[in-house]
Amino acid sequence: MSGPFTIQAEAWYDGIALERAGVASTSALDRARQAGELRSTRRGGRTLFLGAWVHSWLAAGNELPRKRRRPAPEPAEARPCA
User: What distance in Å separates the CA atoms of residue 82 and residue 80, rounded to the nearest whole number?
Assistant: First the structure.
């Protein structure tokens, strides 16, 4: 059985590796990146995160950003059939 996953400060990780390690889902990482809370870089068509950046993001205690849902449309008024 393997031990706990350790994020090395000098290592590069992609979203899939961090998701498999249980850090956060890839969509949560993308939302945090787009919100400017988590630094990243693009190399070879992949988004990469430096371990130190992930450490600082987790240490800052940022909540995982949630998607904003649109409110449900109001139901149309019932009209009597003619």
Answer: 6
